Amino acid sequence: MKSQAIFRIISAAALLFLWAGPSSAADDAETRRETVQLDEIRVMASPIIEGNVTDKYAGQKTVVSREQIEDLNAQDVSTALRKTPGVNISRFNPVGAFGGGEGGGIFIRGMGSSRPGAEIKTYVDGVPMYMSVWNHPLLDLLAIDSAGAIEVYKSPQPQHFGNAVGIINIVPVQKATPGTQSRIKLAGGSYDTFIGNMETIGKTGTQHYALGGGYRQSDGHRDHADGRTGNFYGNIGYQLSDEWDIRFFGLYSDNTADDPGVKGADPSKRSGAYETRATLAAATLSNNYGSADGYIKVYHNTGEGDWLGQPTSRENVYENLYNDFNYYGIKAREAFRPWNGGELLAGLNWEYTEGDYNKHFTDGVADRWEGHDFTMFSPYAAVSQTLGDETGFHVTPSAGARYYRHSDFDAEWAPHAGLLAGYGGFSWHAGYSRAVVYPGLDVAVFSEKVLPMLGDSWKNLDPEIVDHYETGVSYLFGTLAAVDLTWFYNDGKDRYVVVPPPPPPPVYENIGTYVTKGVETALRVSPTADFSLFFGATFLKSDPDDLPYAPETTLSAGANWRFLNAFTLNLDGQYLDKMRVSPLLRRAGAENENTVDSYFILNGKLSYDFALARKGLSGTVFVAGENITDTDYEYLPGYPMAGINGMAGISLIF
């Protein structure tokens, strides 16, 4: 309650400041005219995703822009990505993610369900943002208000990141054109849901800034399905010269979510509440000389993930677990283009990770894990060469590798190779890449506290390996349409699991294997500047076939239509096949029997844009509906999601 009061007081103060401050923006007459005329020059954004981007090394990422986030009325990262091809989610509550896993998880092409541990890592501004103690994401820490875009890397790409099969990265908002702009958004809806955020961004000469924050709360669609999220952020940059600039990014978030429990079950068996807090600071020094560009980033990220009110085997005794995590490190990268069509890439990451916990029981018993720390150094290099004319036929072969040196585990290499070809609107990519995923602090805490019989067996573990193969084609029909078709194959081995007796004692071993393979497609069509369509599909096979959150078929579609000059209609829908759920346990022979049925849901949003030229004020009023089809669906058996529900709000820009 204290944090709620703080957020509301600061939010109210910020709103008053922003309301009093339009004069600074209004002094720029050109900025004022651009704001008033915005909807006359704006091209309708693509529904669902901005697009897929392929780099010179045949690595591909999917980008979801701020426009898509707004159009989807997404209030967190999972709702912003749940229609993205290749991505599936799980959740309990309308607002707030319950400690990762089913209560707030993101899965990419069947990956990410391991817990403890995770093949999918989450980042903000390229900085690690997840729970180090148990080595898995906490989605509420990924403050969506600060996002200019969300990047989804669905495959290993050693030229960009390491120690993961895939990543989700929040790219901080930054104003690209000169001028200043402030925004306030207020909304309310079903289940006593309240949303408020504010932001002021600007670019003047050699400086740019973005300052803001957001607050969300909801009582939820069931008893104890309530949640709250809040954050403040700042992204401030300065152009030191024509070639160099420096940027500082900071983020603070404070969140909580309850577990509503299995419907109809004993309420005392609920898993309590999960609270998260984090503070991130990063400084990035960038350069761009034309023939070379790159950056050096230093960062520090610390936070807490507290699991409160967990039931225990002792009657009327509950556990409060206070987890602390800490990261700091440096990232450096430079791309050189010393000759025509060629690029030499070199970089390095150094990361320090630590964590510990305190445990308190309501009967007065207490326990503490003093913690452990890991360091990892991973330099990487790559080369690519474009042959031919990029305006005509061209081919780009590439190759590279990342080297890992870990404080506690053996060194490993992650090679990659790719080939691009293109002509006109057609492009083709093919590549191989290896993911190296080291055990996290979870293996140490399990061995020392959860299952001490494991002893030091964790120290003999090797990193998990995933060999990834991919090929795909894209065709761009001018400004009318774009289509992507991608085939992928992941071969995972050396997954670490606990092997129980006989013979005793239980030990950690690298014996887990799995394969995921499939086809993914995305079609974006914009027949006019006011109308845009999207269709996406993922067809997935996994071995073993009980791999959770790996449905065989996922379909998504969306439409954006601006009509009568000031109205905009956004529709998005998704079909999800029947699938296995629950965490992929790290125990030899573990089977997953939990399933949820297939479902189709449809969401929509209707907006009206207005402008008051005399006051330099513009804005949008909107109504949004979720699960318009009133479908019965769930991400975990016994956890029904909300039926048809709605929201209305207003956004002011000045």
Short description:
The chain is mainly beta and 654 residues long. The strands form four sheets. It has a 22-stranded antiparallel β-barrel.
Keywords summarizing the entry:
Maltoporin, Chain A, single chain, 22-stranded antiparallel β-barrel, 7 helices, mainly beta
Number of helices: 7
What is the makeup of the main sheet? 22 strands, antiparallel, barrel
Cα radius of gyration in angstroms = 24 Å
The low-confidence runs, each spanning 5 or more residues with pLDDT under 50, are 1-41
Query: Which structural class do you get from the secondary structure elements?
Result: mainly beta
Q: Which CATH class is shown?
A: Mainly Beta
Spatial gap, N to C terminus: 32 Å
Strand content of the residues, in percent?
over 45%
Shape by Cα distribution: globular
Number of strands: 33
Query: How many separate structural domains?
Result: 1
Question: At the fourth CATH level, what is the homologous superfamily?
Answer: TonB-dependent receptor, beta-barrel domain
Output the CATH topology.
Maltoporin, Chain A
CATH architecture annotation: Beta Barrel
Share in helix? under 10%
